[in-house]
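so im writing up the methods section and need the Fibroblast growth factor record in one place, dumping it here so i stop losing it
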Amino acid sequence: PASLLRLFLLPGTLCREQDGSGTPPAAAAPAPCSSSVLSYGHLEGDVRWRRLFSATRFFLRIDGSGGVEGTRWRERPGSIVEIRSVRVGVVAIRAVHTGFYLAMNKRGRLYGSKEFSPNCKFMERIEENGYNTYAALRWRHRGRPMFLSLNSKGRPRRGGKTRRQQLSTHFLPMLVS
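--- predicted struct ---
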């Protein structure tokens, strides 16, 4: 029996099935893709332990009092975070050592929250350069997303001053060994 190869395209486009020979099934015409084809339910609830390393060369850290900062020392308590998928493309970031969730208020200020709230949800996006950006799901500034960002001194930047293209908003989720 030949294995089936499926090509899945965006909604509204067509899906084709091919067998191992590279020829489409004889009687089958291209059929519209069903919505179940694009289901990403398996990603919901996914939990990853990482260190978020900024393009400005700092590790994101949430300290014991809920302060957010960057540290050059990778082994510093609070630098290991749990990135939990809330739904597709939306994550919650929690410091494993301190238990604080990363949150952003409506003014774009980053802080640590002991309780999970809507302020703790961030849209995670993998950029073209391979870095990830994290934009507050709940808040926008003048219609623009507000991003998690560490400046060149390791201090958090206010969300309203950030843009997706700025290197200070780019993070590499590094595996915890």
